[in-house]
Amino acid sequence: MGFIKGCRPFLGLDGCHLKGKHKGITLSATSIDANNCLFPVAFAIVKSECGDSWKWFMENLYSSIGEIRGLAFMSDKDKGLEAAIPLMFPSAEHKTCVRHLYQNFKKKYPGELFERLIWNCANSYNTPSFQWHLREIKSASSNAATYLEGLTAQAWSRSQFTPNARIGYVTNNISKSFNAWINKTRQMPIVEMVETIRHKIMERIDHRRALGRKWRGKLVPKALKYVQTIVKDIGEYIVRRSSDVMAEVAGPDFTIVVRLDERTCTCRAWQVTGLPCIHAAAFITRIRGLDICDFVDEVYSLQKFRDTYASSIAPMPSKGFRSISILFNDPQSFPTALLKKPNTVVPFSSAATSNTGSKRGNSANRPQPPPIGKPNKGSGPQHNSSNEGDNKNTADEKVNNNGKN
Ligand SMILES: [Zn+2]
Where is the SWIM-type domain positioned along the sequence (predicted)? Predict the structure, then answer.
């Protein structure tokens, strides 16, 4: 429910091997909240990762979330997943983790030059910038460029991303963060593992609901920090107004067009991420009376964050108490198989409520979208290229979306 109400329509999918004597694989679907932290949506334990497993997982995922407008998946193209997604979500966007793509690419075309250029291609928000870097690859190896051009069915560059999900991540770091978050449970017996993960999710939601009550203002902290950072870097841009809502914004090497009424910039960073790019920021801040925070997409609003964590995971009694039925304010959040006698209350059940939170109420690099036709340093709104793909990230750490380590 929190995913539907408050998260961006984005799900990272991944499989992760268990370490206990029973072996098996954890399949997971992980989204991202308004503050760019992971939000676990679904997980399952399966015997092996294969087409049937993913198909079963996606069927159950669909039965839980239904059709989501503008839904986008990110994956490592795990075995069987590529076919399973369109079966249940035929209109969803499917992005490929560029880290995974590069692992395959470098088997044929190793070297630092190709590595740098691949990431530049991936981080390009617009086609001219993507093509510029691709031509660099072509000048080094026409076969390498042909290889990449053949991946047309895989969206791995921001220039290929639609604006629907408001997310510019080019790696599946969100799923890797989930795997790291549950790492200590992977050697547990299956039931204990599932229970431990359930506890972690339950407490995480409660903790973040409390954060939502404490925070003030319109935007979540990471979005606010982004805005405060980007306005410091607008000095080198020249704004030539065409009207109240249109302007040319010229940087050192190129000129682009910003439209405030459509919330677009020809660099496409604003559309893809939902955060005003440096060009938009330069225009907005030169207009008296405008607040740049008003031009940040609502997916980064504090209200969306609170909506995400408004519902609770209901507590579950220990095994000996499970024949006793429980009255929950939100029975949907409790495994129905355990509700044998509805409307009977056990003493501690009053704590199991939902929708209570709404009544009460970290990206360090300079955020700059890539230029058109100029090498891309891999920075951009809502991103910090230094952390993406770092499996040491904990779930409470920021999940950054851009570039390589
Ligand atoms: Zn721009």
Answer: 254-288
- The confidence score (pLDDT) of residue 107 equals 93
Q: What percent of the chain has pLDDT over 70?
A: 78
**DSSP secondary structure of 249-260:** EE-SS-EEEEET
Q: Supply the pLDDT for residue 391.
A: 37
Over residues 212-221, the mean pLDDT reads 97
**What's the CA-to-centroid distance between 280 and ligand 1, angstroms?**
6
280-319 pLDDT, tens digit per residue, is: 999 999 999 999 999 999 999 999 999 999 999 888 887 7
Of all helices (H) and strands (E), which one includes residue 127?
Answer: helix 127-140
Distance from chain centroid for Cα 317: 33
Say what the pLDDT of residue 96 is: 94
- Give the pLDDT of residue 335: 39
CA of 245 to the centre of ligand 1 (A): 14
Enter the tokens of residue 230: 């980007």
The pairs formed by 381-384 with CB atoms below 8 angstroms and a separation of 24 or more are 381/168, 381/226, 381/230, 381/269, 381/270, 381/273, 381/275, 381/276, 381/277, 382/36, 382/168, 382/222, 382/223, 382/226, 382/273, 382/275, 383/168
pLDDT for 397 beyond 70:
no
* Token pair 């609901």: residue: 209
Give the distance (Å) from ligand 1 centre to CA of residue 281. 9
Helices 112-123, 142-149: crossing angle, 10 deg rounding: 30
Contact 403, 157 (CB under 8 A): no
What's the 168 CA to ligand 1 centre distance in angstroms?
A: 14
Ligand 1 centroid from CA 390, angstroms = 28
Measured in angstroms, how far is the CA atom of residue 161 from the centroid of ligand 1? 16
Tell me, what amino acid is at 72?
Answer: A
How far is ligand 1, taken at its centre, from the CA of residue 385, in Å?
Answer: 18
How far is the centre of ligand 1, averaged over its atoms, from the C-alpha of 167 (Å)? 15
In the chain, % helix, strand, coil (3-state, to 5) comes to: 40, 15, 45
Tokens of 239: 């704004």
| DSSP structure class, residue 274 | S
What strand order describes the sheet that includes 264-265? Answer: 238-241, 246-250, 255-259, 264-265
Rg of the chain over Cα atoms, rounded to whole angstroms, equals 23
Cα distance between residue 99 and residue 120, in whole Å: 12
pLDDT: which is higher, 398 or 219: 219
pLDDT in tens, 174-192: 999 999 999 999 999 999 9
How confident is the model at residue 151, as a pLDDT?
83
